[in-house]
Amino acid sequence: MYRRTSHVRKLDVLSVDTSSVLQIGDSRQIDAVANILAVQREQAIFYENEFMFENYSAFSVPLTPPILSDPICIDTFHDCPYIFIRKVEVPFLAGSSVVHVGSNESITLETRVVNIRHIFQDEQKTRGRG
Amino acid sequence: MMRYQVINEAICVKKVSVSALTSAASLFIGDTQTVDLRAIYETPPEKMILGATIPIDTAIPAS
Q: Which domain of life is it from (chain B) (predicted)?
């Protein structure tokens, strides 16, 4: 499959997270997975085996892509073999995301985020559930 | 059988600026064939506990 070449003069990236990819150049396959369990406690006291990934179903439910009913025949023709971009600014990359300069064959990204907040309520105002 | 034909002309862009890419997002400058993006974002109401109590004796203060 004939691929185009990408010309990027300036690329600004400030921070790339542990599960993110900044790819400059061709690649064949990229698989990135991020499981994020964010806990905010008003009183920052945590103990050891408190928040485990296993107790949350969001991290175990399978995410299977839909299968194609009938095959698709894709043919692409590039009149101009180049992609020109002068300036690319992507300051932050987080949660298994990808900036890709170049061509690629297959990319699979998966992110699972669960947020938990524990807030102390002050006695007289609200009767919180909990 | 579905036929899908693409004819790419010249492409010249002056500036691309994205404030942030997060949760299975991708910015491509180039060709690709299969892209498979999946994300789950969960903020369950019962996880927002007002008046949470933490047993003090077994806790390890966050360093």
A: Bacteria
